[in-house]
């Protein structure tokens, strides 16, 4: 998953990975839905954190449909 992205991504990459806009990407980070490190004004996001976020959300949706 996301083989064309580096192991550490920025907000622009996050937007492309999730197909979302800038505001939504920043909200996910500011609300700590996706683990990250902020260095100065830059967000550094492990690619695995994005994958984990998606897996967690997909599981929650499936559980609510099945349960």
Overview of this structure, please?
It is a single chain. The protein has 67 residues and is α+β, with helices and mostly antiparallel strands. It has one domain. Helices cover 55% and strands 15% of the residues. It contains 3 helices and 3 strands, in the order βααββα. The chain has a 3-stranded antiparallel beta sheet with strand order 1-3-2. The mean pLDDT is 89.
Keywords:
67 residues; alpha+beta; 3 helices; globular
In short:
The chain is α+β, with helices and mostly antiparallel strands. It contains three helices and three strands.
Query: What's the total count of β strands?
Result: 3
Major pleated sheet: 3 strands, antiparallel
Terminal residue distance: 28 Å
Mean pLDDT: 89
Q: Identify low-pLDDT runs.
A: none
Class from secondary-structure proportions: alpha+beta
Computed over alpha carbons, the radius of gyration is 13 Å
Can you tell me the overall shape?
globular
Instruction: List the secondary-structure elements in sequence, H or E.
Output: EHHEEH
Number of helices: 3
What share of the residues lie within helices? 55-70%
User: What's the domain count?
Assistant: 1
User: Main sheet: which strands, in order across?
Assistant: 1-3-2
